[in-house]
Amino acid sequence: MDFHVVTNGTDESQPLLYQWEIQDVQTGEVLGRYVGKARAGSRRPRCHYARNVRRLLAGLPYRKNKPEAFRVVHHALADAVRRGDRITLTLLRNISPGEDINEAERVTISALNCTLNGQEKDIYMGWFWKSKKTEPNQATASDAAEKDLVLAEKALARFYLAKSPHPIQLRQAEQRYFAAVAKHFPKADANHLLTCLYTDYDGYHQGGHTKDWGDGTATLFINEQDAETWAKDEPEYREQLYKQYPWIFNKQEPSAS
Description:
Elements: E1 4-6, E2 16-23, E3 30-38, H1 43-57, H2 72-83, E4 86-94, H3 101-111, E5 121-124, E6 127-130, H4 143-161, H5 167-184, H6 190-206, E7 210-212, E8 218-220, H7 224-233, H8 238-244, H9 246-249
Parallel strand pairs: 1-4
Antiparallel strand pairs: 2-3, 2-4, 5-6, 7-8
Helix pairs in contact: 1-2, 1-6, 4-5, 4-6, 7-8
């Protein structure tokens, strides 16, 4: 999901309010607006919404145990991606020490006339979005599809996020991802999904985030070049890094599998 970011001079590491705004790319008309809160700073709005929209566009579940829990704003953003509308993320302001972030969010939602705040249903461009309802003919992800995509995405994470000098393995991982998308979601734009995925990964990498894949494994977004230092100086990450970069510690040949 491509979007513009307006930071307003906020401290992105501190609690803040943010706004998603969708504008008609031809007329500039505001089609929808959403305000949210982020207690841990900007990482969640910068990264998580794009991930959820990517999953929605590909017909993947929101979460395995909550497959249809996409919110109104996710559907609206996905629709904007399909139409090519302009999407802007604005970091509105930081929350002051002692300020009630929930009350600040509520007041701002009312003041900005937000039309996309809501879970069960809301009005957007004259349509009722219902997050509990699956549209007819909408693709759904089977366990096999989810497993294939997770395996492909894990390989991509290792060779893209690590910024490793392994272009052949990265290309192989990309081809594996394209094959998984083509197999399970033949109508999806695999190139666009890959671009969104890499945008998500860049956000995780900048935030020092660990990605839990939901299958008992995780990827620690540490550069390959820094892995040996981290394994030496940060014992709690050692086991994870040994699994993630076996070619460094066990002198194995890198593999995209």
